Amino acid sequence: MARRNGVVVAARLGWCCLLVVALALGVMGQPPPSPQNEDDTPPPPNPGNGDDPWGGGDGYDPPPPPPDNYWTYEDGHPRTEVKSYANGQPYRANYDKPNKIYTCDDDWGKKCIAQCPDLCPKSCYMSCSDCETTCRCMVFPGTSCGDPSFTGGDGVTFYFHGRRDRDFCLVSDTDLHINAHFVGNHNPANDRTFTWIQALGITFGDHRLYVGARKAVEWDEDEDHIEITLDGEPINIDTANNARWVSKVLPDLSVKRIDNVNSVKVDLADVFSISASAVPISDEDSKIHSYGKTMKDSLVHLDLRFKFHSLTNNVDGVLGQTYRMDYVNKMNVTAKMPIMGGAPKYLSSGGLFSTDCAVSKFHRNVGGSHVLASAA
């Protein structure tokens, strides 16, 4: 009796083993899942990967090619190959909205379609590499926009009005100095003079980099108003989003367009990254803020975003000081918009590339250039 029970148990175990093996073979025989687009549809085969576009191994039968209208939605608008973002959040382009739409390829050659978010429907930065749009004047550390408001390294936003047609040091460190040229408009109706940043003069090592906005009586959004020079020589970049220029003298210095015209990103590797957009004062802005804009000048200026990678704790300047670890904010932070005073100590009397402001920390080539060493 015991022997017969043992045979039954052994038989059952045998059947279980056979069932497990059969299931394993069934699973192993299945083709791997295909990669998906953001809308859960499979991308078209990639002949560059050989006979198997999905990397499934020999003998895998690839799916048929996509239909001719694959890269369009039912309404005829193009699809995107990669997920798009706006201000750090997933955001699919909606062609029914008036928000500006960008189309370009990412760093892997895949189609990117991204749209300015509702917070800034017509004025955003576009990163093709990340397939992401970002509002130009979001409150990020290092941002400067409009009648210039700054957001410091400590995260506090404040105004610094400077003075029309004068230069002020924004950042002054051991071997990096950034001045800003201010332009302005006086409105006799309220007896106020409003100012904006028109250009940057960036000094590092023995080099001088100029980034400015050209004056325009009438604004044309299809015309490029950005002007850039290195050591007095113009930098010319194709008018296409993601077009890039790299310095032959300083291979770590590059300029990339982040829109077809009027927006660029300047990078000195391991030192700084500066996004600059040339923008006008619109009639609506002038009416809301009582700027007193006339038909003689569209008041083109720069909206800016700075990122610094190697500032010392000795840095100074309107913006630079806010990055010091021991910086103490003495402004009235309870005010609706704090104002930084002390304009005279930030004033540069010798021009846009002068390093003579009272708080200057710049020492050209003393003990070698920390900036150029960082970029090397």
Automatic annotation (TrEMBL):
Signal peptide start and end residues: 1-29
Region (Disordered), start-end ranges: 30-70
Pfam family, one: Root_cap
Keywords: Signal
Protein name according to UniProt: Uncharacterized protein
Lineage: Eukaryota, Viridiplantae, Streptophyta, Embryophyta, Tracheophyta
